[in-house]
Each structure stands twice: as C-alpha cells, then as structure tokens.
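Morning!

This is the sequence you dropped in the shared folder:
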Amino acid sequence: MQMSLGTQLRHLVDLADGAVGRCYAEMGLAYRPRYTPIMQCLIAREPISVGEIARCAGISQPAATQTVSLMIKDDLITRVPSDDGRQKLLKLSAVGRAMVPQLQQAWDTTARAALSLDKDLELPLSSILAAAIEALRRKSFTERIREAALENTTAGETH
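The structure's back. Tokens below.
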C-alpha cells in the first residue's frame, strides 16, 4: 500500500527532525528543531513581535505563538516591553544567546547533510519543496481539494 501525501510528508519530517534533534542532544543542547526558524529571526533582528517572527519564519501566527511559549518556558527567549510600552516584544535570553555559536555549528552541519541528501536524489528535494510551496501559494491545497471534490461529483453524475 502506498502512503498518502500527508503521511509521506509527516514521515519525512519525522526522519529529518529526529536526526536533527539527536544532533542537538549529542552537542549537549536542550533545543528542539522547531525552534530554529524563530531563533534565526531573533538572531537577525531583535527585539521583534510574534507577528514579525511569523512573517520572518514563514509560519502561521498561531504556530509562532505556540513555539514562542515553549521557547520562553525553556528560557531561550524573553519578553520585553516595546519602546512605547503598548506591545510585548521578544529577544534572546542569556541562555539563548550563549547557545548561538553551537546552534550555528549544528545548522551548518545539517545544511551539509541536506545537500548530501539532494545529491542522492534524481531531483533535489529542496528544489521540489520550493516549487511545491510556490505552487500552493498560487493555488492553495484547499482550492485543489474543492476542485477534486467537484470532479468526483461530476464524474459520479456521468455514470
């Protein structure tokens, strides 16, 4: 039986995230792979709002909010008031800042591993994923599901 697209994607992420998580653990870091896009945004620019993190990281605001909460709990980031005091912003904590050199080393290592994977494939996975993301930006998966459902309905009427 062939796995569905969703199952394949989850399995691919599990395989990659599991290996990356083990890499962090072997380096002695209490750090989750899902923190990386947010951490990279904070390294590039801080303090920053959750909304700005979501845009920078290319994730939804609810996903950013959930991950930020975990990162605060793990003492990697902290909330600070904005200059006008109307908004809470985020910045790296002392613990998070101290972790940056090791994280950058881990990110370099995992980037090289990803290039190795790309070389083993007929087409680079990174290119396929970028093309798929762009195609879904042009026409969402929701629209594609609706069209497929309409095709099923229409096909059922002609039989």
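Headline: The mean pLDDT is 92.

More detail when I'm at my desk.
O.
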